[in-house]
Design goal:
Elements: E1 16-22, E2 28-30, E3 32-35, E4 38-41, E5 43-44, H1 47-62, E6 70-76
Antiparallel strand pairs: 1-2, 1-5, 1-6, 3-4
Length: about 90
């Protein structure tokens, strides 16, 4: 496995936006889409990312096997650092 961590960090992450599916019983799950061989969770830390994911969320909502679930956009705003891993 090749590990790479050198992202062009743009901002401090103080909130996370996430597209979730909700079934009739109120159970929730994070929506995801496949990009190549990787499943990508539909979440981001800025509204630009949310807007880029919105068309995918709308497409998911229209898919036949998804008709019993609604898709919600939620926002998490409490930040708590659970662990710091240093070199």
């Amino acid at each position: 496995m090749t590990l790479i961590h050198n992202p062009p960090n743009k901002l401090r992450i103080d909130e996370i936006f996430c597209f979730i599916s909700v079934d009739d019983d109120g159970n929730e799950g994070v929506c995801a889409f496949q990009a190549g061989a990787t499943m990508m969770p539909m979440m981001g830390a800025d509204l630009d990312r949310v807007e880029s994911l919105r068309p995918i969320a709308k497409q998911l909502a229209r898919m036949q096997y998804f008709t019993d679930k609604k898709i919600c956009l939620i926002k998490f705003t409490v930040r708590e650092e659970m662990e710091i891993i240093e070199p």
